[in-house]
Amino acid sequence: MTHQRRLNNGIRIVMEEMPTYRSVSIGVWVRVGSMYENRANNGMAHVIEHMLFKGTSRRTAADIANEMTAIGGNMDAFTCKDCTCYYAKTLDIYAEQALDILGDMLCNSLFDEKELKKELGVILEEIDMYEDSPEDLVHEHLQMAVWENHPLGYLISGEKAIVSGFTREKIQEFFNQFYVGENIVISVAGHFDEEEMVNWISRYFDSIPQGQRSDSGIAPAFRPVIWKKEKDIEQNHISLAFDCCTLLSDERYVLTVANNLLGGNMNSRLFMKIRDELGLTYAIYSYGSSYEQAGLFQIYAAMQPSQTEQVMEAVFSEISRVICEGITERELDIAIQQIQAELILGYESSYNRMSGLGKSLLIRDRAIPLEEDLLRIRQVSSEDVRQFLEKYLQRDRCGIAIVGDTRLY
After folding, report:
1. What does the H/E/C string look like for 178-240?
2. Of 133-137, 170-174, 269-273, 356-360, which range is least confident?
3. Mind listing the pLDDT tens digit for each residue in 279-291?
4. If 263 and its partner were Cys, which of 95, 270, 336, 349 is the partner (CB 3.0–4.6 Å)?
5. What is the largest CA-CA distance in the chain?
6. Among 16, 17, 37, 49, which one carries the catalytic annotation?
7. pLDDT tens across 324-348, in order?
8. Phi, psi at 27, each rounded to 5°
């Protein structure tokens, strides 16, 4: 059972006790990411995520790393389009120390100019690393193309020309705007005492100002465009994107089942047809990218350049076949059983529970219990899946990205 509290500064706390565990996972979820940026500061949320590990008024960067290692814990962070998360997993007896470190990072970071200069160099190298990954390129740049000039299409890491010009003053201004109580959820899962945990969180995070909740803004317009990047590599990498449901829509449960059936695993339609039967590609899969304002259904594949057109036609042919013929009840049962198994097994991890509860409360304003998700998945019918694919996966409303030898397409 989950419990929720709210501090005086607006920070929301969601907790789930797991009495048989000896560990505890803690996540500080902030409602900020690239979708809350503009052209001039794109990449700043990601830079701040890095800088919070670079020293506070109480700890150096080495102190942060050493103290967390000393208690046998794992501490890290990540930035998405719609949120940033700082998390720690450690033994229950060290939960307060982990909270002390996390609270210090969020309340007392220095954003030292020398450290900033060094870390910007690291981040620029990270951006170059993504440029060297064709799989990342087709995913990120297709979103940029179909959501042109909208923050939801921005690169999370930002572009080098912009990021290299960030100053301490601009970073501090951005931090002060978004790192406020109304924008923060702290989620905890594992072995702990509820009242003790609330008292610790209040102690280490009470200096954060209340502020205002971030506005997600207007939804982007979807553009079915073709984006190409010529690159001297052995394979072509393609990504197809279709306008789809949002993270808040009840259709997300149908999306989960439809994705599993179409390209979400090794027994999916696309994998079995295009990889196993036709032998046209080694890697092919589908996935959903859903946010508050908009969503995409995407399909990725890598193949020999000469087979690009054939793979594309096979993908659209299989989509049309599912729409026209539907799926069998056996296919549906297997998909639902697999999804339920993944959800249940995932919830045996304190980190996964912390993550699911934290992001759900941050984005949806409610912590959705596992039982509700399982029930909604079981309620999806074969006709729901067919109608979903017919509604969203139309060829004339598809965005396409290709990296590699683009001369043949």
Report:
1. HCCHHHEEEEEEECCCHHHHHHHHHHHHCCCCCCCCCCCCCCCCCCCCEEEEECCCCCEEEEE
2. 133-137
3. 999 999 999 999 9
4. 270
5. 64
6. 49
7. 999 999 999 999 999 999 999 999 9
8. -130, 135
